[in-house]
Amino acid sequence: MKFYLVIVVTMLSVLLASAQESRFVQTADGILHYQLIGEGKTVLIINGGPGFSSEGFLNIAKEIASMGYRTILFDQRGTGKSTLEHVNASNITMALMARDMELIRKELGLKDWVLFGHSFGGMLANYYTALHPNSVSAIIHSSSGGLDLQLLENARDNLYSRLSQQEIDSLTYWRRKVDQENSPYNRENYTRFLASAYVYDKKYIPVVSERLMQGDMSINRMVWQDMVRMEFDCKEALRTFNKPVLIIQGKQDIIPEALALTASSVFRNSTVNILNECGHYGWLDQEEAYLGAIKSFLERVKKYPG
To answer: Using CA atoms, how far apart are residues 61 and 94, in angstroms rounded to an integer?
Structure first.
């Protein structure tokens, strides 16, 4: 009987974690799409990019949901199934993306939620938290781009540091080919060499390359231009944020470890976890350690009095 009960409980947990619902909400200038996965305390997944849909983060959303949480994936404005009447620099901004996130929170009637931000998603999580600190119960920085624009200072050097000279030469060659003709063939070759910088284990190059092919580079440029225009810097606004923060990234990440240390110095209640033999995607290179660290952190958040 005990064995039977264990099986039933386990199966129920799997079914709840795999439950997936797609929703759409009207914004002032378009339609915002998001998905709900699982049941429990809510974790908003903010994918990297910018200019990429959330579909590449479906697996990590399901993994976190399987830990006993409800995860939300949303397509940032102009990407995936989130549509805009017009896509231009006036409606592709950090302020409007943060407004979209707040729209989802209010639509679901949530007092607060945990933010999981990967790469650029970490920067958007920081910006949203600076605007709405009381709506955030905890933050997970997954290879986050940081609290300011320090990432841009040596972006190319950081990228090249993860490549051999032959790979750098090949990347340069195919970037020029893309500039001449933005064909699928040229982009596939370019992203293949670019993906090599993002992973420690080269067997994951095809997975990352496929993801990089999906980005809308015009939206990508507009977001970065907006961040430069606004002189993006959340450090001072976040010094008083005292909720738990997990900062996790790979030791061999293209994101410098210095950004993680800067974030740790700003957040009062932060934990830093640097994974060795790990690139930009912890759930690929170090799946067990990466997911284990997130699970332990979320269990701690449940017990946090704030």
So the answer is: 23
C-alpha span between 240 and 30 (Å, rounded): 34
**Look-up of token digits 């540091």:** 161
- Residue 1 falls within a domain, yes or no? no
Who contacts 86 (Cβ-Cβ below 8 Å, separation ≥6)?
A: 29
Question: Which tens digit of pLDDT belongs to each residue from 14-25?
Answer: 455 557 899 999
Burial class (CB in 10 A: 0-12, 13-18, 19+), 190: buried
- Confirm whether 99 is domain-assigned: yes
The Cα 37–Cα 2 span in angstroms is 29
Quote the pLDDT of residue 303: 81
3-state DSSP of 20-38: EEEEEEECCCEEEEEEEEC
Strand intervals (E) in the chain: 20-26, 30-37, 41-46, 69-74, 83-84, 113-118, 136-142, 245-250, 270-275
pTM of the model: 0.92
- Whichever domain contains 144, its CATH number is 3.40.50.1820
Please say whether the beta carbons of 123 and 257 come within 8 A: no
CA distance 85 to 82: 10
